[in-house]
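User: I'm writing a tutorial on reading structure tokens. Could you give me a worked example: one chain, its sequence, then its tokens, then a sentence or two explaining what the tokens reveal?
Assistant: Sure. Here is the example chain.
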Amino acid sequence: MKKTIKKVFIISFLLILLMYIVNITNLPDSIILFQGEKYNVRTVLGLNIETLQASAHLEDGIQTVGRLDYKLNLFGSIPLKNISVNVIPKTSVVPLGNAIGLKLYTNGVLVVGMSEIEGKKPYENSGIEEGDMIVNIGEKAITCTADLVETVNNSKGKQLQIEYVREGEKKQTSMIPVETAQKEYKLGLWVRDAAAGVGTVSFYDPQTKSFAALGHGILDIDTNQLLEIAKGDFVTTKIMSITKGTKGNPGKIQGSIENQMNIGQIDKNTEFGIYGKLNNTTVLNINIQDAMEVATRDEIQTGPAKIICTLENNQKKEYSVEVEKIYKNNNQNNKSMLIKVTDKELIEKTGGIIQGMSGSPIIQNGKVIGALTHVLVNNPEMGYGVFADLMIKQMREVE
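And here are its predicted structure tokens:
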């Protein structure tokens, strides 16, 4: 009997301990909020969050713009972690919906596959895996595929010291290139240094001259990982065709970015979209008078809304949608709202949401509430949108 009670006590204690650990782990080290935005803090008994500076409460909405530091403690006396809160002012942006082209260049070369060279595997036991980014060989910086090919060939088969990056951490290894029948030297690695695609630009921020697009990041087609970029080009596109989406077969907008005009630079590829500076507002017909306030999550409602996108003849148009569900506490991914297309014209043209419409701004009650991100493959009339505040926070974090 005593052993049973002891086991129950130990299990209960471990479950309570796990609950505390999970709560502490789930609280981020830094938070970005709009001025006046409420942040729902989920803590358990004994866990308290106290400000180190002003009397401001996360749950009530902070009015002071700038940086506030909070501390998480247990029972008011045991410090556990610090939380930095950056409060940015409410902002207005110009919703767009133009179809655009994206060219991204990696910071190094991305390993996307491996194959034997003359029956040998020079990469074996090197530790290098698909998804790793090779950035240096010896003292030579590897910025593109051509750099890698040239450096490996110049080695004449001598051992190479290779620096690569995995999940933000730099690692070192060495490999001995293999000579091919064509008298070339190779490592047996398939690599890529660029990616390109077509999507929709969400909005333009007149204050920073920045743009946001897609609402989601660009993943490498082979590794399915977020592509780490060094730079990118934001270019015009010409829509060539539209493939209508059906159940189980997502449709797409097919566009050309060849011989198109460069209108900006990309500097961020994040889970919440593509970001950069726009240097030509005329091409996108941006009118500052069309600026709208970005809604906070508390202002978003289930019910009717509009999206703006470009489908034919490079002409933007508004289409009716419905906000079905709102996931207010979701800061982890870009599936913030469940969206249903209700516009009969749009359903007739596309079947609903298709690839290339990602980034289409969502407007409700005269405010920008988000952008389309995904389609439900088994029901193309349904999809997800990301909160506009998450996109703005990627652009305007307080230093």
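What the tokens reveal: Confidence is low (pLDDT under 50) at residues 44-59. The helical segments are 2-26, 145-154, 344-350, 388-395.
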